[in-house]
Amino acid sequence: MKGAYYSATGNTFLVVDSRNISLSEEEKRLLVLKYVGESDGAIFVESGFMDYFNRDGLRAAFCGNGARTYVHFIHEKENSGSVEFSSHAGVISGLVEDVVSVKMPPPRFLGSFEEEKYRGEILVVGVPHLVMEGSTEAIDWGALLPLRHLYDANVNIYSVIEAGNLRVRTFERGVERETSACGSGATSVAWVYSRKTGHNKVALQANGGLLTVTFRDGAAYLGGGVEKCSEELELQL
Predict the structure, then answer these.
(1) Which of 16, 32, 211, 217 could pair covalently with 3 via S-S, beta carbons 3.0-4.6 A apart?
(2) Three-class secondary structure of residue 169 per DSSP
(3) How far apart are CA 112 and CA 94, in angstroms?
C-alpha cells in the first residue's frame, strides 16, 4: 500500500492510502509504530472515512489538522474541491480554496476547572481539551503533566497578541509532547476566547504557522495550510 508524509501547519502525519484496502485495527497499529517515527500520528484514508491514530499506536476519535489533511489528500487524488467524510467524531465537511478548511465537530463545554495554581475551561472538540490563558513564552510542560493525566486531555495555553489574534501552544495526549500545531486545540481556544470577547473570527499563531477559526451559523470552521513532505512510499506490514 502507498503512504506519504504531510504537514498541516506543522502538525505532521503519515497518510496511508487505504481507500481500496481493508486493514484491521492491529494492522493499523503496527503500521503506525513502524512508520510514524517522529511524526505526530497517522491518517488512514478509507473510502469516505478518516481513521486517525496517534504516534503511540492508539486510535483517537478525531484530529482537526488531520481532517484538513484528509481533505487535501482527496483533493490531490480525486481533484475534488469539496469533500465530505465520516470520522469517529461524526460527519466532517471540508473545502480547498486558498487554505484547506473543515467544519469542526461542535465544541462541547464541560465546565471550568481549578487545580492548585491552574484554572481554565474543559471542552471536547472531537477529543478533550483543557484551555488556559497565560504566558506562552516559557512553558514548563512537566509541571502541567499531572493536569494532562488527571483530565486525560490535551493541554492548551494561549495569550492575546492583539484583539482577535492569539498565540497558542499545545501538549497533545497520545503524542505526549508539545506539537507544532493542534487544530482541535486551536478551535477549543478560539471558542473560549470568542465567548469572552464576541470575536467570530480568531487567528491563532501556533509554533508551526497560522490557523484561523471562524464561527458562523452555530458552527466552527478551522482553516490553514497543508503540504506534502515526501514522495510516495511503499508501506509493508
Answers:
(1) 16
(2) strand
(3) 31
- The candidate with the shortest Cα–Cα distance to 44, out of 85, 72, 64, 14, is 14
**Interval 164-184: pLDDT, tens:** 999 999 999 999 999 999 999
Using CA atoms, how far apart are residues 220 and 185, in angstroms rounded to an integer?
A: 12
- Alpha-carbon distance of 124 to 83, in angstroms, equals 23
Residue 24 in 3-state DSSP? Answer: coil
Measured CA to CA, the distance from residue 126 to residue 143 in angstroms comes to 25
3-state secondary structure of 36: coil
Please identify which residue in the block is written with the cell numbers 497518510: 15
Q: pTM, whole model, 2 decimals?
A: 0.95
Domains, the chain, with CATH or none: 2-93+226-234 (3.10.310.10), 108-224 (3.10.310.10)
pLDDT digits (tens, 9 = 90+) for 27-52: 999 999 999 999 999 999 999 999 99
Q: Are 58 and 30 in contact (CB under 8 A)?
A: no
Give the type of residue at 28.
K
Q: Which three cell numbers stand for residue 195?
A: 465567548
From CA 220, how far away is CA 25, in angstroms rounded?
Answer: 30
For residues 57 and 36, give the distance between their C-alpha atoms in angstroms, rounded to a whole number.
9
The DSSP line for 97-150 is SSSEEEEPPPPEEEEEEEETTEEEEEEEESEEEEEEES--SS--HHHHHHHHHH
